[in-house]
Amino acid sequence: HRRLHIKETRLSKFNQTEIKAMLGSYTKVLFVRDPFHRLIATFLQDMGISPSFSSFVQEVLDGGMHYRSVAWKPLVSLCQPCLIQYDYVVMFGFLRQELGHLLRRAGLPAGSLLPELTDSQVQWTYRWLSEQMFSELSAQQKKQLSRFYRWDLAAFPFSSSFLSD
Fold this sequence. Notes:
This protein is mostly helical and 165 residues long. It has one domain. The chain contains 9 helices and 2 strands; from the N terminus they run H-E-H-H-H-E-H-H-H-H-H. The protein is globular and about 45 Å long. Keywords: Carbohydrate metabolism, Glycoprotein, Golgi apparatus, Membrane, Signal-anchor, Transferase, Transmembrane, Transmembrane helix. GO terms for molecular function: sulfotransferase activity. One of its GO terms (cellular component) is Golgi membrane. This is Carbohydrate sulfotransferase.
């Protein structure tokens, strides 16, 4: 797009005509991850800020959408999947398979560019972590988290998410 090299990077800085032209000229890829896994990853990265996972979750719930970190905000509020027609949605936990497909569609050699990871190991690790962290939460926190992420859970197939229950 002709305005590609301008410093403005947020779509909200452009008018509707420019937004439509830009979005129409790009391949749009959305990477999604179970919101509970995103919470766990954020907590583990910021360990020491909150004394426990339960207190971290309470801070998130108390701060709601006004909290400064985008690491755990609902994806639908960040990526606008109802307004932007993404060409690909790549699920964390299936990265190797889906990235391979995406690279082949783009005409790139998929084998040499894929990260060295085993999706089944990643899924097993997050399943175990999820069980441990979920058990720390009160019934009220579990209910509030499910409500907080309800649109993500409705928009994306996180069928094995602890928040889906």
